[in-house]
């Protein structure tokens, strides 16, 4: 198992390096650069050349990428090409805000999804299963910006219960984001709960139809004891990887939600950096998100291996 984990770790590090190179190449392919964004109408002639020389943009792309990659290995993400500030200080607050948004969503969504997933699986084809499954499919198919707009109209404009957008700065304390964070959390919870619920439901149904559960029924094991000791431990294992993917998505895929609600998170800042052609910031955020994605999935793999009884038995047999 250790060898397998080391292999996956090496693959993850290679993935991070590949993603960073792809992001660099994609941003390089965009028309213009940081100097054209900074100078705007004056981006021509000697002034444009001086700006590119000052920011080092006149150097070959490969050399600039290698310098940045070497700095990243030293935990030095460089400086912003747009304002000259250290990227670590610019990204830090926004990463903390995205972690706050993701943490609130997970705290609300994971227990709710597991509970509803188990309920629908145990009551397959019942009224609760039909209603909740239909609601999950509906939540999965609606784009986040649509549900966000509807929630803003209903709860902010019509009922005037919570703010429709976040108006605090990125460096504000966590308590300042309430109650403005409520609607973004609801939107993300809807999507996350739907995906995890469907996975847990399918896993519960599959476990209930397994041979060892059927044998437990034939032996007269009480229903709820069978559910708690045999069904849930095995049915919830697939949910670990789904939750891991959800965490990675929450940290990197909430760009639309953060933009709609004006939430000062990492995704929102990445869109601004792309608009400013601020390549070092885009690279830094992409590297952070890729590293988080790989780390979360590696942790999920390790947890699955530890909790899976079949893998524990195989490991014990191999000494």
What does this structure look like?
The chain is mainly alpha-helical and 319 residues long. It folds into two domains: 72 residues; 185 residues, MetI-like fold. Helix content is 76%, strand content 0%. The protein contains 15 helices and no strands. The longest helix is centred in the N-terminal third of the chain and has 36 residues. The radius of gyration is 24 Å and the shape is globular. The protein starts with a helix and ends with a helix. The C terminus is likely disordered.
What's a concise summary of this model?
The chain has 319 residues and is mostly helical. The protein has helices at residues 2-29, 34-39, 45-55, 61-73, 87-122, 127-141, 144-158, 182-208, 211-218, 223-235, 237-252, 255-260, 266-275, 279-307, 309-317.
Shape: globular
Number of helices: 15
Following the backbone from N to C, one meets helices and strands in this order, namely: HHHHHHHHHHHHHHH
What do we call the CATH homologous superfamily of the largest domain? Answer: MetI-like
Number of spatially distinct domains: 2
CATH architecture name of the largest domain: Orthogonal Bundle
Portion of residues within helices: over 70%
Key features?
MetI-like fold, 2 domains, 0% strand, single chain, 319 residues, disordered C terminus, mainly alpha, 15 helices, 76% helix
Topology overview:
Blueprint lengths: L1 H28 L4 H6 L5 H11 L5 H13 L13 H36 L4 H15 L2 H15 L23 H27 L2 H8 L4 H13 L1 H16 L2 H6 L5 H10 L3 H29 L1 H9 L2
């Amino acid at each position: 198992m250790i060898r397998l984990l080391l292999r996956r770790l090496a693959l993850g590090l290679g993935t991070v390096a590949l993603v960073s190179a792809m992001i660099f190449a994609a941003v390089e392919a965009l028309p213009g650069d940081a100097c054209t964004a900074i100078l705007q109408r004056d981006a021509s002639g000697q002034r444009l050349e001086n700006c590119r020389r000052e920011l080092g943009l006149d150097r070959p792309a490969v050399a600039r990428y290698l310098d940045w990659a070497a700095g990243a290995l030293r935990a030095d993400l460089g400086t912003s090409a747009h304002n000259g500030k250290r990227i670590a200080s610019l990204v830090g607050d926004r990463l903390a805000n995205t972690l706050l948004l993701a943490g609130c969503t997970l705290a609300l969504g994971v227990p709710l999804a597991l509970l509803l997933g188990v309920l629908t699986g145990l009551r397959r084809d019942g009224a609760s299963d039909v209603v909740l499954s239909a609601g999950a499919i509906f939540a999965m198919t609606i784009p986040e910006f649509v549900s966000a707009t509807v929630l803003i109209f209903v709860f902010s404009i019509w009922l005037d219960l919570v703010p429709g957008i976040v108006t605090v700065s990125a460096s504000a304390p966590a308590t300042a984001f309430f109650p403005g964070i409520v609607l973004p959390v609801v939107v993300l919870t809807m999507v996350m709960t739907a995906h995890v619920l469907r996975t847990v439901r399918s896993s519960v149904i599959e476990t209930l139809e397994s041979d060892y559960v059927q044998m437990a029924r034939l032996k007269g094991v009480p229903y709820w004891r069978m559910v708690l000791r045999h069904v849930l431990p095995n049915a919830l294992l697939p949910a670990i990887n789904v939750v891991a993917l959800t965490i990675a998505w929450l940290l990197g895929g909430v760009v639309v939600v953060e933009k709609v609600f004006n939430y000062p998170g990492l995704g929102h800042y990445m869109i601004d950096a792309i608009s400013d052609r601020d390549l070092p910031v885009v690279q830094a955020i992409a590297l952070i998100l890729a590293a988080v994605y790989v780390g979360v999935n590696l942790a999920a793999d390790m947890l699955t291996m530890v909790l899976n009884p079949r893998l524990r038995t195989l490991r014990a047999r191999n000494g």
